[in-house]
Amino acid sequence: MQTVVQAAAWAQTLGLPRLEAQVLLLHALGRAPHDRAWLLAHSDDALDTAVQATFATNTQRRLNTEPVAYITGQKEFFGLTLHVDHRVLDPRADTETLVEWALSCLADTPSPEVVDLGTGSGAIALALKHSRPDAQVCAVDASADALSVASANAKRLALPVDFHHGSWLAPLNGCTFDAIVSNPPYVASDDAHLAALKHEPLSALASGVDGLDDIRTIVRQAAQHLKPNGWLLLEHGYDQSHAVQTLLGNQGFVNVQSRPDLAGILRCTGGQWPTVK
Ligand SMILES: C[S@@+](CC[C@H](N)C(=O)[O-])C[C@H]1O[C@@H](n2cnc3c(N)ncnc32)[C@H](O)[C@@H]1O
């Protein structure tokens, strides 16, 4: 019979990082992912065979590059527990930079109107609504599957967000916003990393030969959908800040600037639509 500490060590010898082994073990035990202190306090407890079998299966899934969040079915984002699965991209901690930036841009705007384009699990839209209950938050995705995940998260978290199915701003004809926020697909279609991603939806990642097709569309459309001084804030690839700044500048945006992610990489770029154009 394997103990808690032996099971975690076994997964690590197969190549799983310690933290991932602990999270998968907690999941097999039916415990919360942050309950790592429990594992320490119970390191010599024997695991029953059903828990061992679940842990072994999930360790193999992880070794087969499936994201931990798809295996456990949940991910923490901006203090919210989101349910996620293979229909949506696993929300990344770096995307919290975009949420923080949006909140600071909207700090002086009462009851701001905001849209999250390409909402996936609903991460950005729900984080904004949670932090600014007075905001009117819309979210768009081209994937009906993603919208099912996002609206279920909104319902479970009791955060009212207005979801729309369609391509970027097309479903919001005639609407204008104080901020348009998006983490769109931005990987070049021939990027070698895409081939390694077997579990994530490709439509959430790839965007033309230079990875900028969707960002070009959003920048072009946003000009018609921002109030004067409204912000367009975009997450993008590690080497795309200069290109995105140029796109925004050419479209007529002002105050164009970039923000670093947790690793210090310029990962978000945005600008303001001017008062007089
Ligand atoms: C990189 S994922 C971001 C998901 C989520 N916002 C997050 O940060 O975790 C991009 C999302 O854009 C959506 N998407 C792709 N093309 C789209 C389009 N033309 N219009 C709207 N959404 C689109 C995908 O379905 C996917 O959910």
UniProtKB/TrEMBL annotation:
Substrate binds at residues 183-186. It catalyses: L-glutaminyl-[peptide chain release factor] + S-adenosyl-L-methionine = N(5)-methyl-L-glutaminyl-[peptide chain release factor] + S-adenosyl-L-homocysteine + H(+). One of its GO terms (biological process) is methylation. S-adenosyl-L-methionine binds at residues 118-122, 141, 168, 183. One of its GO terms (molecular function) is nucleic acid binding. It is an enzyme of class 2 (transferase). Residues 15-73 form the Release factor glutamine methyltransferase N-terminal domain. Residues 103-197 form the Methyltransferase small domain. Its EC number is 2.1.1.297. Keywords: Methyltransferase, S-adenosyl-L-methionine, Transferase. Belongs to the protein N5-glutamine methyltransferase family. PrmC subfamily. Methylates the class 1 translation termination release factors RF1/PrfA and RF2/PrfB on the glutamine residue of the universally conserved GGQ motif. This is Release factor glutamine methyltransferase. The gene is prmC.
